[in-house]
Amino acid sequence: MGLKKIAAEDFNTNIFRDLDRGWMLLTAGDRQEKFNPMTVSWGFMGTFWFKPMVIVGVRPQRYTFGLMTEYDTFSLCAFPPEYHPALSFCGSHSGRDGDKTVPAGLTPIAGDRIAAPVFAEAELILECRKTYAAPLDGKSFLNKALINECYRDRDFHQLFFGEVLEIRGVDKYCQKG
Ligand SMILES: Cc1cc2nc3c(=O)[nH]c(=O)nc-3n(C[C@H](O)[C@H](O)[C@H](O)COP(=O)(O)O)c2cc1C
Known about the structure:
- By secondary structure, the chain is of the alpha+beta class.
- It has one domain: Pnp Oxidase, Chain A.
- The protein has 5 helices and 10 strands; from the N terminus they run βαββββαβααβββαβ.
- The strands form 2 sheets. Strands 1, 2, 3, 4, 5, 6, 9 and 10 form an 8-stranded antiparallel sheet that branches. The chain has a two-stranded antiparallel sheet with strand order 7-8.
- Strand 2 (24-29) and strand 3 form a beta hairpin.
- The radius of gyration is 16 Å and the shape is globular.
- The relative contact order is 0.25.
- Flavin mononucleotide binds at residues 23, 36, 38-42, 57-59, 62-64, 91-96.
């Protein structure tokens, strides 16, 4: 797919549409060693510590959690609509049971700046370096109803902040001026 580099200030995204509705693939690990993709739909993008940053939330029971903890980099990729079944697969199967990329029909390729792989079929690639990680704390919830709604097993997400080192995407993700 013809992706071009996009400066953070030109990055044109609606995070609610592209992440919550469209879903993305979070991939942790090292392409040369071990890695694993997992579908995500919750997260944030913005500026922190003067840097373009994404925040993803990973529950501790995910296989991806161990790789996010162990390795320094991760990628976030968005795909054209025809890859929705692939994302559905990666969001309902675990890498503990085998490589998801083959049954999902996805091709891991080298990133430009990170050890974690990106995907040949992606229409948007964010290459990220872990910057900060911390679990959500049940005691800090001001809306306690969310705990029973989202964390009946008290499996609070770990938030991983990643500095966005590079963005590549198809034209629709770039808006200059
Ligand atoms: C649309 C969708 C969004 C998801 N978003 C998240 C998320 O933001 N955080 C999370 O921990 N799990 C999320 N999941 C669940 C994981 O993708 C799923 O449990 C996956 O099988 C974990 O794979 P792993 O064990 O290989 O890491 C989502 C699943 C789907 C289908």
